């Protein structure tokens, strides 16, 4: 199970920063942003191998379930 930032969203935000820098903004003047979108990924195959049971309510909340 993993809960972390959405990589695709972070790449989009990085592109905005690169655009600002290429247009002449100083990197030191740009604000620091925190991630706003997180993903919950559950690997059922590994959970089964470890003998773990994942509650259905948690599976429904997951953004991605690996079977």
Task: Write the topology of this structure.
Elements: E1 2-5, H1 7-22, E2 38-43, H2 44-49, H3 56-61, E3 64-66
Parallel strand pairs: 2-3
Antiparallel strand pairs: 1-2
Describe what is shown at a glance.
The protein is of the alpha+beta class and 67 residues long.
Strand order of the largest sheet: 1-2-3
Largest sheet: 3 strands, mixed
Radius of gyration: 18 Å
Poorly predicted ranges: none
What letter string, H or E per element, gives the SSE order? EHEHHE
Inertia-based shape: rod-shaped
Structural class: alpha+beta
How many helix segments?
3
Number of strands: 3
Percent of residues in beta strands?
A: 15-25%
Q: What is the mean pLDDT?
A: 94
Which range best describes the helical content: under 10%, 10-25%, 25-40%, 40-55%, 55-70% or over 70%?
40-55%
Distance between the termini: 12 Å
Structure, explained:
With 67 residues, the chain is of the alpha+beta class. 42% of the residues lie in helices and 19% in strands. The chain has three helices and three strands; from the N terminus they run βαβααβ. The chain has a three-stranded mixed β-sheet with strand order 1-2-3. The longest helix has 16 residues, at 7-22. The two termini are 12 Å apart. The model has no long low-confidence stretch (mean pLDDT 94).
């Amino acid at each position: 199970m993993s809960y972390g930032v959405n990589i695709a969203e972070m790449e989009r935000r990085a592109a905005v920063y690169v655009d600002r820098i290429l247009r002449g903004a100083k990197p030191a003047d740009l604000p620091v942003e925190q991630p706003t979108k997180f993903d919950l990924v559950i690997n059922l195959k590994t959970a089964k191998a470890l003998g773990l049971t994942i509650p259905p309510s948690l599976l429904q909340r997951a953004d991605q379930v690996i079977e």
